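Entry 14. Structure prediction run on the chain below.
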Amino acid sequence: AYSVNYHGVWRDLDSVVLPTFGYTFAGQIGAGRSKATDAETGPFTRAYGRLTGYLPLGESWYGQARVEVGQVLKDGLVVAPDSQRFRAGGDDSVRGYGYRSLGPISNGVVGSGDVILTGSVELARPFSASLPSVWGAVFVDAGNAADSFANLEPALGYGVGVRWRSPVGPLRVDWAHGRELRRSRLHFSVGIAF
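Output returned:
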């Protein structure tokens, strides 16, 4: 397969390193042509968007919300390469699940899908006035990747976390429970995904 892709990021934030107000949008669009041994040869297109908003709520609470949606469009039995398809799960997707561990299951194996839809809502606040850079958070994430939006069954993850708003960006430690897996996992990340 070969493809041409464009990726752009637009930001309107009070701080790029430690945002508390504003939004970011990351968009991707691409087109290509694939050829496979057991599939038809033909064109495909890909579109993806991720919108994240930050909003102060009162004097000490802060909200963050994210929605991510993407789709690969193709005809008949044309197969887009795995690098152009979607999976969900992980630190900046659906917490409570491993990185790229959510997608359509075929013969007991997780694969990539032609569509993705995820969302997240988080509330956070400083633990105390004497430690303004250490925040506690609660969150709910949901979403999945699938072969079509009609077949998409969202996985749910929820939990609590601690954020250290360091001078170089936030450091996050989250304990998240994956409802479908019926188990919990620890997530660790640094910085903000644009």
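The mean pLDDT is 94.
Filed with the rest of this week's runs.
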